[in-house]
Design goal:
Keywords: Disulfide bond, Glycoprotein, Glycosidase, Hydrolase, Lipid metabolism, Lysosome, Signal. Homodimer. It is built from 14 helices and 16 strands. The chain is of the alpha/beta class. The chain has 2 domains: 12-26 and 328-424, Immunoglobulin-like (Sandwich); 42-320, Aldolase class I (TIM Barrel, Alpha-Beta Barrel), CATH 3.20.20. A hairpin with a 5-residue loop joins strand 10 (337-343) and strand 11 (349-355). It binds alpha-D-galactopyranose.
Length: 425
C-alpha cells in the first residue's frame, strides 16, 4: 500500500516539475510582434535543388519559372505535404527581371513568369497554400538581380500588393554593417506597415558574424527566423558542419528561440542525392530537436516513398512544432556519440542519439535515464517511444534505469520520453 507521505512527496515533485518548466518556459526575449511563426515555418524553397537555373529552353522542368512553382503547389496538396503541415511555397533568388519597372517596382522575369507574381500568388492561395518570395537588403541579390537598398518601402508594398506571405531577405552586396543592420530593421517595419501578414525570414546574423557578434535579442524583435550558418549543400559534410556550428554556439542562440522567432539552420535536403538514408534520418531528427523551420528543397515530382514518409512523419513533425517552442541542445558528447535533447510541452522530452563514427557497424550506447531532461524527464518513471529510424514502443522506464540504443554510422535514434506521440495510440 502507498503511504500518505509517498503520495505527498510525489505531488511535490510534480508541482516542482511544473514550476520549473513554467519559469524556464517564459521566453527571455520579445519576438517580432506580427503574430506569425508561432511554431517553426514549414514549406518548400527552390534554392538548394534548383539554384539559379534560367535555361527554360534546355531544361523546361527545372528552370526557375511559374511552371515549376505551379507544379510544386499541386503536388504539395495532392501528395499530402500540405496536410503534413508544409504550407509555404517559396521562391528564392533569380525570379526577377534584370531591371525594375518604370515606376521603380521589382518585376518578375516576363519570359519565365508570364503571369507575374500576383497571378502565381492567386494560384498558390487557391490551393490553400501561402507564397514566399526573395529579395536582398543590399544593392543586388546574391545572384546579381536588383537589390532592395533604397527601395525598402516600395518593395514591401509591392510584395503585399501581390499577396506574398513570406519574404526571405538575403544580405549580399551590402556596402556596410551599418546599412545591413538598419536595412534588416527597416524592412521589418516596412512589411508591418503594409498591414499584410508576411513572415520575415532574415540572414542578418550570417552576414554579421564576420564583423561582430550579432545581437540576437534585437534580431528576434525584427525577424521571424534568421540564418546563422553557411548555405546548406546536399552532403553529409554540410549537415555535420551546421550541427557543429549550432552546438558550439548553443549558449548564444538556443535561449533566443521561441514562438515567433527561430534559428534557421537552412533547408531540409532530404529526398535529393547526397545523403544516405541514415543521414536523412539524422537531418530530420536534429531539425526537430533544433526547432528549425522545416523548409524542404527537393523535387516533389521525383521523391522516394522512403524520403517522403520521413519528411511527413507526424511524430517527428509534432516534436518540431511543439507549442512550448523551446529549442533543444547538445547535452553530451562522448567520442563519436552526441546526445541532444529538447523539452516539450506536457512535460515530455525528445532525445536524439547521433553516431558520428564513419567506420564499422552500429554503435550500442547506453544512457542513464536520470541523466536526461535535467533529471526530471523521467521521474519517477516514464514511457519511452523510439520514433526514428522506425517507430517502436520501448515501454516504461524508471528513473534509476537505463536505455540501450543501437545507432547506425551517421544515423540517429530519436526517442520521446513521456507524453504521447501523435500516433502512439
Ligand atoms: C545566398 C543565400 C542562399 C540563397 C542564395 C541565392 O547564398 O544564403 O540561401 O538564397 O543566396 O542567391
Amino acid at each position: 500500500m502507498k503511504s500518505g507521505r509517498g503520495r505527498q512527496w510525489r505531488g511535490c515533485l510534480l508541482a516542482l516539475r511544473f514550476l520549473f518548466l513554467f519559469f524556464w518556459g517564459v521566453p527571455g526575449a520579445r519576438a517580432l510582434d506580427n503574430g506569425l511563426a508561432r511554431t517553426p515555418t514549414m514549406g518548400w524553397l527552390h534554392w538548394e535543388r534548383f539554384l539559379c537555373n534560367l535555361d527554360c529552353q534546355a531544361e523546361p522542368e527545372s528552370c526557375i519559372s511559374e511552371h515549376l512553382f505551379m507544379q510544386m503547389a499541386e503536388l504539395m496538396v495532392s501528395d499530402g505535404w500540405k496536410d503534413a503541415g508544409y504550407e509555404y511555397l517559396c521562391i528564392d533568388d533569380c525570379w526577377m527581371a534584370p531591371e525594375r519597372d518604370p515606376e521603380g517596382r521589382l518585376q518578375a522575369d516576363p519570359q519565365r513568369f508570364p503571369g507575374g507574381i500576383r497571378r502565381l500568388a492567386d494560384y498558390v492561395h487557391s490551393k490553400g497554400l501561402k507564397l514566399g518570395i526573395y529579395a536582398d537588403v543590399g544593392n543586388k541579390t546574391c545572384a546579381g538581380y536588383p537589390g532592395s537598398f533604397g527601395h525598402y518601402d516600395i518593395d514591401a508594398q509591392t510584395f503585399a500588393d501581390w499577396g506574398v506571405d513570406l519574404l526571405k531577405f538575403d544580405g549580399c552586396h551590402c556596402d556596410s554593417v551599418k546599412h545591413l543592420i538598419e536595412g534588416y530593421q527597416y524592412m521589418s517595419l516596412a512589411l508591418n506597415r503594409t498591414g499584410r501578414s508576411i513572415v520575415y525570414s532574415c540572414e542578418w546574423p550570417l552576414y554579421m558574424w564576420p564583423f561582430h557578434k550579432p545581437n540576437y535579442t534585437k534580431i528576434r524583435t525584427y525577424c521571424n527566423h534568421w540564418r546563422n550558418s553557411a548555405d546548406i549543400y546536399d552532403s553529409w559534410e554540410s549537415i555535420k558542419s551546421i550541427l557543429a556550428w549550432t552546438s558550439s554556439n548553443q549558449e548564444k542562440i538556443v535561449d533566443v528561440a521561441g514562438p515567433g522567432g527561430w534559428n534557421d539552420p537552412d533547408m531540409l535536403v532530404i529526398g535529393n542525392f547526397g545523403l544516405s538514408w541514415n543521414q536523412q534520418v539524422t537531418q530530420m531528427a536534429l531539425w526537430a530537436i533544433m526547432a528549425a523551420p522545416l523548409i524542404m528543397s527537393n523535387d516533389l515530382r521525383h521523391i522516394s516513398p522512403q524520403a517522403k514518409s520521413l519528411l511527413q512523419n507526424k511524430d517527428v513533425i509534432a516534436i518540431n512544432q511543439d507549442p512550448l517552442g523551446k529549442q533543444g541542445y547538445l547535452l553530451r558528447k562522448e567520442s563519436s556519440i552526441e546526445v541532444w535533447e529538447r523539452p516539450l510541452s506536457n512535460l515530455s522530452w525528445a532525445v536524439a542519439v547521433m553516431n558520428l563514427q564513419e567506420i564499422g557497424g552500429p554503435c550500442y550506447y547506453t544512457i542513464a535515464v536520470a541523466s536526461l531532461g535535467r533529471g526530471i524527464a523521467c521521474n519517477p518513471a516514464c514511457l519511452i517511444t523510439q520514433l526514428l529510424p522506425e517507430k517502436r514502443k520501448l515501454g516504461f522506464y524508471t528513473w534509476t534505469s537505463s536505455i540501450k540504443t543501437r545507432v547506425n554510422p551517421t544515423g540517429t535514434v530519436l526517442l520521446q520520453l513521456g507524453g504521447t506521440s501523435k500516433t502512439t495510440s
